[in-house]
Amino acid sequence: MSTPPRFGEQALSEALARIAAKIGADAFDARLLRLANNAVFALPGAGLVIRITLSHRLHDRARKNAELGAWFDEVDARTIRLANTPIPQPIAEGKLLATVWTYVRPHEPQPDGGDLGDALHAYHGLGLPPFPLPAWDPVGDARVRITDAECLGEDDRAYPLDWCERLEPRLRDYVASTPTGLVHADAHAGNAPTVEDHLVPHSHRLRAAAGRRPRPHQPDRRHGHRR
User: Fold this and answer.
1) What does the alpha-carbon distance between residue 80 and residue 217 come to, in Å, rounded to a whole number?
2) Is domain 9-102 annotated with CATH 3.30.200.20?
3) In the chain, where does the domain assigned CATH 3.30.200.20 lie?
């Protein structure tokens, strides 16, 4: 008999139910929003989003996101808020870690690239928090995910790892030429929902780091692009 995958539908549903029970939340209407290196579930009835880190090698990121979410609340940042839970976050469930965020219902109009630029401009203006953040290392993150991907054959694994080797020196040169700041490593319009006419980056999809980023440009809203 074959061993079921660590992160199959049944295993994730069971883990979600146990995490929800620990915080006294009802997961009857849970729906999967995203499945990558995290499983992100919306619980609209409870007003929560539960983000389960799937790679055991990324637990430090879950801990750092919980710390960062608390800091965002302290400085009243324009982000989705870390939820108040009866136990400290991140929440351990076996070998998994989870963070819990407030749920934001879909709102029209949908944000575009210019809206995302406004949100990120405010986000970058926060500066660095009073605690250390991991260095921005997208190539290193990719290596971790590729190595931990249990369904990849060796040939399929070797190709992206070779690509990482070729990309790393180019990225190193870029990092050396740009200023340091708070980096949102998953910036796209889907991560900037409209909430009461304000654009806020999704914390539950956040991959923050202290890294190099281009000098800020003001968005040109007349033409829907940056100048």
Assistant:
1) 24
2) yes
3) 9-102
Write the pLDDT tens digit of every residue in 107-138: 777 777 787 788 788 888 888 889 888 778 88
pLDDT at residue number 211: 53
Rounded Cα distance between 26 and 44, Å, is 10
- For residue 201 the two structure tokens come to 């980056």
Q: Are 79 and 191 in contact (CB under 8 A)?
A: no
In the numeric block, which tokens belong to residue 78? Answer: 């324009």
CA–CA separation, 167 and 44 (whole Å)? 40
Q: So what's the pLDDT on residue 154?
A: 87
3-class DSSP assignment, residue 153: coil
Please give the structure tokens belonging to residue 193. Answer: 């929902």
pLDDT at 208 over 70: no
Alpha-helix runs per DSSP H in 125-203: 138-148, 154-176
Kindly report the number of other CB atoms within 10 A of residue 148's CB atom.
15
Residue in 4, 10, 50 with CA at minimum distance from that of residue 27: 50
